[in-house]
Each structure stands twice: as C-alpha cells, then as structure tokens.
Amino acid sequence: MQEVIRSVGIDIGTSTTQLVFSRLVIENQAGSYAVPRISIVDKEVVYRSKIYFTPLLSATEIDAEAVKQIVRDEYKAAGMHPSDLKTGAVIITGETARKHNANQVLEAMSDLAGDFVVATAGPDLESVLSARGAGADKFSEEHRTVVANTDVGGGTSNIAVFQKGTLRGTSCLDIGGRLIKVADGKITYIFGKIKSLAAAHGVSISVGDPADLSTLTRVCEIMADHLAQALHLKPMTPEHAQLYTNDGKPLAEEPAIKGITFSGGVADYIYHPTADNPFRYGDIGVLLGRAINGNPAFSSVERYAAAETINATVVGAGTHTTEVSGSTISYAEGKLPIKNIPILKVSEEDETTLETFSASIINQMPLYRPEGKPEQIAIAFTGRNRTSFAEVQALAAAIIEGAKEAIDSKFPLILVVETDIGKVLGNALNVLLQHQKDVICIDGIRTLSGDYIDIGEPLVNGHVVPVVIKTLIFNS
C-alpha cells in the first residue's frame, strides 16, 4: 500500500539559507506480518525557496530569530503548514556549523521541524552531503571509476572523492565566491588568505580599491588553479597548503581522480558561464565560476553534469524506516533511548580484510567532528562471513583498533550489524574492553552511509529494541 507524504529540507549555510519542499510516495515493501520496511518509490520537488544570505548577528553568531522568520515566510509561500509535513531535515553547514549558537538555532526551529533529522555538519561531512546531492557517488558506482565532487560555495570549497561508490577522501579549502565582496564599484571585503594568495602572485588588492574586472578575474584564476591542485590535476605550489580550512590536509594522490562534478552556488557559472554583470551578487562568484570553467586542468578528466548544483547540500527529506532489533543484541543498561545518531558505514569492500575494516573506521572518523571534537556515532557494517566464535573475536579486536577515538570519547560505543551476531560481538567487546566502556550492539539492521538512527527503550523484557532509521533523500 502506498502513501503520499510531504517533506522539507532546510540548509543553513555559510553564505546562504534555503528550503526545498518535496512530495514523496512511500510504500511498505514488507509482508503483512513482517516488520515494516518503508521505501520511496517516487519523489518530486514541489517548491524551492528563494536563496537568502544567512543572517548573522556577528562573525560568530547566527541570528536565530531571523533564520526562523525566513523559514516561516517560506512555509507560507509554499502553502505549507508544519502539520502538513511528515518528515524532513535541518542541516547547518559550512562556517555556520561552527558558530557558537548553532544548536540554539536548531532549538528555535523545533516547532517548525518536528521529529526530523537535525544535524550540524563540519567541513568533511558537508563534503559528503554535497557530493551525494550532486550524484558523484552514483556516477562513480555506475561508471566504476573515481569521481570527485567540488562544492564551491560562498566561503569554502568542499571536496569528496568516491571510488566505485565508496568514499575515499574529503578535503576543504578556503576558496569561495564571497571571499571578496563588491558594492558600488568598490571592494568592500577581502578574506585574509585570499589577499595573501593574490600578493604571492604579484596582485595587490585592498578594501576600498575599485572593483577592476581584470584584476579580480586574475585573482579568481589563481583560486581556480588551487582547486585544480587540490584535486591533483596540477602540481602543488608552496603556498597551496595555507588554503585548507582549519589547517586541514590535502587529498591523497591515490586513487587518482578520473571524473568530476561541481555543486554549490558557483557551480551554475561553471556549467553555464555568462557574460552578464559579474558582480550581480555583490561578490566574485560569477568570475570564479568562469575561471574554473576556463582552467584547462579540469579538462583533463571527465566532467559530469551534477544532479544538483546550488541545492546539492539541501536535503529533500529524512524518510523514516522502522525496524526491530532483537534476541541477539547487547546493550548497556540505562543508555537507551538515543536519537539522531549519525551512521559511519564500513563498505562491504572494506570489510574484506580486518586491516581495511579498521582503516575505514579511522579514515571516516574526521567526518564526525563538527566542532573539532568527536560526536556520538554508530558504526555500521554487514558482518557477513564473520560468524564463528574465532572470527567474531578477531572482528571485535579490529573494531577496537579502528574505533579508538570513539572508545576514548564520553559516548557509548554503538555498533549496528546486519547479520545476527550482535550479542556475541557485544560480549566480546565487553571482555576486551574489560567492561570499562558502555557498548550497544544491535543486529538485523541495514543502513547506509549518511543515515541517522534512533534506538528506543528495550521491549519484551529487554529482548528487543525498536529502531528508526532516518535516510537523507537528496533531490537528484
């Protein structure tokens, strides 16, 4: 039986805030007496909001009431009421995620957002969200190749690399369309790193200077060149290392990138360069798009049309799948229920050896540090072919090796396994950790990278727990 529901995705970013309303057709594909398994069989974007500059009270504080008013106005414009919406997601991204009152903004919108996916995304996780919205993960899987998405926004450029559908690396640079602002024919703002970068190339620019087209075009060409360097499409120059956000690191040289997609506000001017007024938005975004499009380094790889550009990070919905995990589970007393826990998924390819299993967890951990410190996560994997006692013991040791950061945090160690090894794996972990760490290990649950999970209070004398999986649905 099918049901039509409405959803909203709200993205509060460094430079812009926007909403997308969607119509979803969902269907329970389980049998009459089975646990419900809800799948989306059709989806349609029914309304896209205007693009707003994210209102700020200061360099470190979001104007929560102004953001809430934007959301209210767009609900009205879309003809929507909070009671009309069954599901959705609110994601705070970019530098906005690091404002000290980001959580206050989420709380301010609680009456408009119901029981939605609610998250702040650091630069690494934002790279993954925008890449998925652009379709880079699907392109890489369908073409069995390595595809990088570069999300060029107002303040940063977020890069995520996928190999045959599996995430292989993320990176973030301080390159964006609003790092130089223009008004009334003059430069009104220059980000410090960009001013230094221009000077290193013999270009002198200062606040108050005329917005000279040739000078700012040259600055944008330099920025585009560094994006190519970040993708290893050109050799890195000495000043390149200074451009990474929060002293981040470059992408690994392997796997080599074979294809590319672009998303973010600047992407429309990469795919569709225009000769119209380059300062129409009071910044250099149009010029930066032209410069990236004209840089020959980007022609050395396949260019795919992104499924979404400026809306790539906007989540269309968070659809909820209700399941039950039971009989073979292990959990720490008093630690349930928990809600809105992001899933760190180990791919089946990375499960083939215990070494790659541990490495996958270690490599993905930086995605879940929105404020520079670990947050609560759930590590998910299939567990296939590791069901004997000896194999489960070895798997537990590999989890401890890979999840040291999670184990050292204040949060419980949460594991979500597809095969029915939850209880024995939980027991093995408790023994190896000498019962010094709270462990929650549930099984019979299938998740995807980027999902969020709720685990309810134990039922039936503690034998089962209700589980809600919230899958972010991108408008692709």
Number of helices: 13
Mean pLDDT: 86
Strand proportion, as a percent range, falls in 25-35%
The end-to-end distance, rounded to whole angstroms, is 24 Å
Basic shape:
globular
Q: What's the alpha carbon Rg, rounded to whole Å?
A: 23 Å
Q: State the helicity in percent bands.
A: 25-40%
Report the count of strand segments.
22
Unreliable residue runs: none
Main sheet: which strands, in order across?
16-22-21-17-18-19-20
Largest sheet: 7 strands, mixed
What structural class do the secondary elements suggest? alpha/beta
How would you describe this structure in keywords?
476 residues; single chain; 30% strand; alpha/beta
Would you give an account of this structure?
- It contains 13 helices and 22 strands.
- It has 476 residues and is α/β, with parallel strands linked by helices.
- The strands form 5 sheets. Strands 16-22-21-17-18-19-20 form a 7-stranded mixed beta sheet.
- The longest helix is centred in the middle third of the chain and has 18 residues, at 213-230.
- It is globular.
- It starts with a strand and ends with a strand.
- The mean pLDDT is 86.
